[in-house]
Write a structure and sequence with these properties.
The chain is α+β, with helices and mostly antiparallel strands. 38% of the residues lie in helices and 20% in strands. Helix 1 runs antiparallel to helix 2 and helix 3 crosses helix 7.
């Protein structure tokens, strides 16, 4: 049975509802003029799933009952509901219409900090980097195919460019199974540079208010993992042709949105807690974490 969601009662909604206008006001006072579409995303999210901003009435001819459904914002960034629905729809399309029943391997390439700002702000740099990544992988598979005497082998690939890291920082990296943004706004570029380096307005590292467990960094192990000069390549994940459920989970993973409402908590004292995928949990004040949304 359909149960309407209540986004107004979530911590993420309260966090944005109570603070986003002040954040934009503070940026304006500092002379930082943000693009209009950023504020539009916040406003759209605050209306998503709330009947007061628009509803649709569905009538069943069989049982003669009505169902009221609130309009959604159809956002691509802040709204976990809309990004989740887009994730499910796109994964279903890839599974049923695009990817045949053949073995699939996931290649994940993360870039050094030196290049992340250029990848986030220069579409030409991002496009050429992705093309080079594709050509390298395609060449690898073509050489293996020719060793089996296959004539004119072709390689198919689907790449998702993710622009966020596990801590909601700006981290452009490629998920490939074998964006095109031009930004000349210096104000937005400054925020992007801060997010890439996980810094505050003065480019200082955030001060943790509470921190539990700090395990040492552990590299992925395996024949298909490599770390060199800041580049990280991980290709251990393989899905066989008959493992369609595993392929669907993989598609959902690489298409996921940046924010999961279950990982964000916001208390009355203004402390925001973001639960990371690892065992580390860090608490920061809102003035530190709000910029990660950009």
């Amino acid at each position: 049975m359909y149960v309407p969601r209540t986004p107004y009662k979530t911590d993420l909604h309260a966090l944005i509802r109570e603070n986003y206008r002040q954040v934009f006001f503070d940026k304006e006072n500092l002379g930082i003029h943000l693009p209009f579409h950023l504020e539009r995303e916040f406003k759209k999210y605050l209306t998503c799933g709330i009947p007061a901003y628009g509803i649709a009435r569905f009538h069943c001819l069989c049982c003669q009952k009505d169902k009221i459904v609130a309009f959604s914002c159809k956002g691509r960034t802040l709204c976990p509901s809309c990004t989740g629905r887009r994730t499910a729809d796109t994964a279903k399309h890839l599974l049923e219409e695009v990817i045949p029943a053949v073995p699939i391997r996931q290649w994940v390439l993360s870039m050094p900090y030196t290049y992340r700002f250029l990848l986030a702000t220069r579409a030409e740099f991002l496009r050429k980097s992705k093309a080079l990544f594709h050509r390298t992988i395609n060449g690898h598979y073509q050489k293996k195919a020719k060793a089996f005497n296959l004539l004119n082998p072709k390689v198919g690939a689907i790449t998702v460019v993710q622009r966020f890291g596990g801590a909601l920082n700006l981290n452009v990296h490629f998920h490939t199974k074998e964006e095109n943004i031009i930004n000349e706004d210096l104000s937005l570029a400054q925020l992007q540079a801060q997010s890439v380096q996980n810094r505050d307005e003065k480019f200082q590292l955030p001060i943790p208010l509470g921190k539990f467990c700090d395990p040492p960094f552990r590299e992925f192990k395996g024949w298909r993992c490599c770390y060199n000069d800041g580049f990280s390549l991980h290709a251990n994940v393989k899905i066989l042709g008959n493992q369609r459920e595993g392929l669907e989970r993989l598609c959902r993973y690489i298409l996921r949105g940046p924010i999961a409402k279950d990982r964000i908590s916001y208390n009355d004292s203004g402390i925001v807690r973001l639960k990371l995928k690892t065992h580390i949990q860090m608490e920061h004040s809102l003035t530190i974490y709000h910029r990660s949304i950009y």
